[in-house]
From TrEMBL:
It holds the Pfam family PAC2. It comes from Microbacterium lemovicicum. This is PAC2 family protein. Coiled coil: none annotated. Residues 268-290 are annotated as: Disordered. InterPro entries: Proteasome_assmbl_chaperone_2, PSMG2_sf, Rv2714-like. Residues 281-290 have a biased composition (Basic and acidic residues). It comes from the Bacteria.
Length: 290
C-alpha cells in the first residue's frame, strides 16, 4: 500500500505504552494467528533492569527448571503472501540505552527491507467503556500524513520507546506511524481490554491494507463490556460517573457539536465536581502518545 509500502513492521511493548495490555495483546494475536520466525533479539544484559523487569522461572515440557529473561525480538513472516506483509517487533520496554536499542532494530529492519513502521500503544483516558474505542492515528512524516490522512501529534513532554523507534525509523528512511487506543482509566489497570485490542487491529488493517486476524476478539469484547456493566450496576457512584463520561463523549462526537455546546458540557462537568475538567475522549490529560 502506498505510504507504508508492502513490508511493514508492527511494534508494541509491554509496560508504560500498554494500558490494559491492549497493544501487546494485538501483536501477540498477530503472532499466534500467523506463521513467524525470530529474526533478531537484543542482548538483555545491555538494556533491561532486572530489579524492575525480573526474569521468570518456570518448568519446561521435560520437567527442567528454566529461567526466562526479558527480551525484545523482531519476527519475520515465514510465508509469502500477495499484498502487505507484517513483521512484528515485541517485548519489554528497555530500561536503558534507548538510542542503541533503536539503532540495533533499525539496522535489522533495513536488512529485512522493511518499508514502513506502525507502532501500537494504549493509554488510560477519560472515556466510557460503552462507546467505541477512540484510536489516534498519527505520524511525524508529512508525506505519510498526507497519503494516509492521519494527524500530527501536538504532544510535548516525556516519551516512551515507541517515539524513539519511530524517530529512528524516519531518520533511516522508513516512514513511521503510530496508533494509540484510549482505554477507560477506571478499568485499564485491572483487566485486559480486548475491545481496545480489536479497535487497534481494525485501524491497523485500514492503514496497512494487510489481512489482520481478529480471532475471538469480538466475543471477548462483548463479554468484557458486560462484565464492567455488571460491576458498575452495584456501584451508584460508578454508574453516574460512566453516564457522565458518556454524555461528554456523545457531545464531542455529535456532528452538530459547536464550540458553545462543548463549552456548555464542560461547564456542566465542572458543576458536577469534575475537578480539572474532561479532556476530549481519546486525549488523556497526561497524554502518552509518543
Amino acid at each position: 500500500m502506498e505510504g507504508l509500502g508492502r513490508r511493514v513492521v508492527v511494534v508494541a511493548f509491554d509496560g508504560w505504552n500498554d494500558a490494559g495490555e491492549a497493544a501487546s495483546a494485538a501483536v501477540s494475536l498477530l503472532r499466534e494467528q500467523g506463521s513467524y520466525e525470530p529474526v533478531f533479539s537484543v542482548d538483555p544484559e545491555l538494556y533491561f533492569d532486572y530489579q524492575y523487569t525480573r526474569p521468570q522461572i518456570s518448568t519446561d515440557g521435560e520437567g527442567a527448571r528454566v529461567i526466562r529473561w526479558p527480551e525484545a525480538t523482531l519476527y519475520r513472516p515465514t510465508t509469502s503472501l500477495r499484498g502487505t506483509q507484517l513483521w512484528l517487533l515485541a517485548g519489554v520496554e528497555p530500561a536503558r540505552a534507548w538510542q542503541a536499542f533503536a539503532t540495533e532494530f533499525i539496522d535489522v529492519a533495513l536488512r529485512e527491507d522493511i518499508t514502513g513502521m506502525v507502532a501500537l500503544g494504549s493509554m488510560m483516558s477519560d472515556v466510557p467503556h460503552t462507546r467505541p474505542i477512540s484510536i489516534f492515528s498519527g505520524s511525524d512524516n508529512e508525506q505519510l500524513r498526507t497519503t494516509l490522512d492521519i494527524e500530527r501529534s501536538s504532544y510535548e513532554g516525556p516519551v516512551g520507546i515507541l517515539s524513539v523507534l519511530g524517530a529512528a525509523a524516519d531518520a533511516a528512511g522508513i516512514p513511521a506511524a503510530s496508533l494509540w487506543a484510549s482505554v477507560p482509566h477506571y478499568v485499564a489497570g485491572h483487566t485486559p481490554s480486548p475491545k481496545a485490542t480489536l479497535a487497534l487491529l481494525d485501524r491497523l488493517e485500514d492503514l496497512t491494507g494487510a489481512q489482520v486476524p481478529r480471532a475471538q476478539l469480538a466475543t471477548e469484547s462483548a463479554a468484557w463490556e458486560a462484565s464492567i456493566d455488571a460491576a458498575a450496576a452495584d456501584d451508584e457512584e460508578m454508574t453516574e460517573y460512566i453516564r457522565q463520561l458518556e454524555r461528554t463523549r456523545d457531545t464531542w462526537d455529535s456532528p452538530e457539536a459547536s464550540g458553545d455546546a462543548i463549552a456548555q458540557e464542560f461547564e456542566r462537568y465542572l458543576r458536577r465536581g469534575g475537578g480539572e475538567g474532561p479532556t476530549k475522549p481519546g486525549r488523556d490529560r497526561d497524554d502518552p502518545r509518543r
